[in-house]
Amino acid sequence: MLGCALIDVMPSSWLLMCSSALALFLSLAKRRGDLARGLGSEQRPALRGYNVEFLNQAIAISAAMTLVAYALYCMEAEVLIHGREFAALPFVLFGVLDYLRVAYLRNSGGSPVDVILSSPALLISGIGWAVATLWSVGIF
Question: Cβ–Cβ contacts within 10 Å for residue 29, how many?
């Protein structure tokens, strides 16, 4: 929002929804990681009222919301070159699914930064997303 205000443009509703859904996805995965590591509401009061089954479903829903919102943003974005608008979508899809895999199979998800830095696939996906995004806006 601040960036949009600084350059005097209206923010995309789909991009705002995507970033909100991504934040929800990461926070739910963090809570799931805390529960999987054996932390309880005694150590983290924020865990009160959560269980792993609920968090699994909520994470899946927020991941789907993130992907749909990003795809809709790509269709709407006026800065993307026609024919290149979905270039970054496969990297986003792979990144979200790989984050889910890491969170579920390794019972990880504590710190999103630690999860990303510990997964070569997520790092490569992030680099691929950056390159595809730059290509889709015509940087190269």
Answer: 25
- The alpha-helical segments, DSSP class H, found in the chain are 2-7, 13-36, 52-76, 89-105, 112-117, 120-136
Which tens digit of pLDDT belongs to each residue from 5-56? Answer: 887 878 889 889 999 999 999 999 988 988 888 777 777 777 888 888 999 9
Nearest to 114 by CA among 134, 99, 128: 99
Q: How far apart are CA 44 and CA 57, in angstroms?
A: 21
- Strand, coil or helix: 30: helix
Task: Give the C-alpha separation, 59 to 36, whole Å.
Answer: 14
C-alpha closest to that of 15 among 72, 83, 86: 72
User: Residue 56 and residue 77: Cα distance in Å, rounded?
Assistant: 31
Contact 85, 78 (CB under 8 A): no
The structure's pTM equals: 0.86
User: 69-78 burial by CB neighbour count: b if 16+ within 10 A, else e?
Assistant: bbbbbbeeee
Under DSSP, is residue 13 helix (H, G, I), strand (E, B) or coil?
helix
